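Need tokens for this chain, all 270 residues.
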Amino acid sequence: MKHLQIITFFIAISMLSACSGSQSTKTLFTGSNIIDIETGEISEGQSILIEDGVISSIFPDGSQNLSGAESISMDGKYVIPGLWDMHIHLRGGDDLINSNRELLPLFIANGVTTVRDAGGDLTSSIYDWRIEIESNMLTGPFIYTSGPKIDGTDPTWEGSIEVTNAEEISSALDSLQDLGVDYIKIYESKLSGENYLEIVRQTEERGLIVTGHMPMDILIEDAIEAGLDGIEHLYYVMKGTSLREAEITEMVRNGEIGFWQAVAELKRQL
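Here are the structure tokens for all 270 residues:
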């Protein structure tokens, strides 16, 4: 296995070592069975050297003489790159700040070293947690966050930003950029297809990453052409790959069916 294929990731054991509060700056994990996730091949009897919380080298057991490193046996255990959870929600308002914070170590305990917060109402707390995690005051994954979701009038989720026209969309994007979010997340519970595409167009003009749910009254091709970078959930992918996409989209536009009826129509073709 090429070293770079795994050194570019923080595996869970390295993060646990970095967050343990140990005074040692070097930790050597020996007897590791490293799985190459691209080929499925397993390299047995490997040592992993971690310096200051970062994987610095990987080599066969006993092939290098090291001093001053704490040695931990990994005999019989397997190592993979840190996992990502691509869709979580850190939310619940002030009453649940501590509850969300206390969940973060569980990601590391299960090998999840990076998470993607797909819209919530705890953005300022997330930035605080990032600092705590980086400084080893808190055990947790790296968190990418979209900050508050963008939706239409009277949105489903607390903390969402309401927009009804191009000017409000521009203001919403201004506020999210000021927050320093990693990407823009769109929700469509009360959002028109027209405003959805306008959000995508404006984020594209600003060079921002945008993902989201999708209104059932627009075509997936139109959203992609406008600049959509990612689609949350498979409902919309299922619709976009359906031979009946245009038909179902038109039925939604005409008010003949709603969201869940559209999903039911898609299921009939499976």
